[in-house]
């Protein structure tokens, strides 16, 4: 990962000073680097030391970072990872345009792999992520969104890049099709579990630990799984309180909604849904060679359920 971070810093270089300022600001903000970690870790699990692995790990981080820059503009977010968002510091135009720079730099770097399959996987993933963003925008303030619709969004918007990271490792390792699919399944299931737990933390986390404002999803009118299940499990009156908050984007009833989400068992049911995805990830990882790196992938899926930030 030190090699990946060095690659990231080197490839952020631009003759336009503002590009470097904004890109370095968000890249250096203490993110988990989970997607590049997955790529490198899966390569190691498969015994692959391909010289392009660090470059491609940086590519997936650039794609992810570009989505964050655009997301924060769309969501009008002011806090990420415990400090002001890039759009809050540099303004919306700079954030959008530097996000575009990161996408285009990522595509320059992926061409260097000279592997058409890898370019196809990353181009497809980037397109699916964009579709997921638009789908989420269409679902804003829609209290009728069901669990299937919610999962469709997060599998496009979040899990797709996890899946691509693991699939790329398998391609670099020249893995047979069944092993490549196991890697992709691991990534998709892990990414889905990651986002479900992230949505739990919006109602059961600590703002200081998480580095974002509690209730942000509600303020943006997002019908996440805890809210969907709270409406399903609660009384008609409780369901109406949650529904109205989603439709209006109001957080005036946030303390009551947090109580509803907890007391109806919606939070626990959401954690169970995340656990099911984590178990799918573990099952997929067992198809990989048995070694310390595969064990780390399995442990990562288990630890994900204990996330507090």
UniProtKB/TrEMBL annotation:
Q: Which cofactor does it need?
A: Mg(2+)
Q: State the CDD domains in the record.
A: Trans_IPPS_HT (cd00685)
EC numbers, comma separated? 2.5.1.90
Instruction: Spell out the coiled coil positions from the record.
Output: none
Q: Which UniProt keywords apply?
A: Magnesium, Metal-binding, Transferase
**What reaction does this catalyse?**
5 isopentenyl diphosphate + (2E,6E)-farnesyl diphosphate = all-trans-octaprenyl diphosphate + 5 diphosphate
Alphabetically, which GO biological process terms does the record hold?
A: isoprenoid biosynthetic process
Write down the top EC class of this protein: transferase
Q: A GO molecular-function term, please?
A: all-trans-octaprenyl-diphosphate synthase activity
Question: Superkingdom of the source?
Answer: Bacteria
The task this protein performs is described as:
Supplies octaprenyl diphosphate, the precursor for the side chain of the isoprenoid quinones ubiquinone and menaquinone.
Q: Which family does it belong to?
A: Belongs to the FPP/GGPP synthase family.
> This protein is called what?
Octaprenyl diphosphate synthase
Q: What is the lineage of its organism?
A: Bacteria, Pseudomonadati, Pseudomonadota, Betaproteobacteria, Burkholderiales
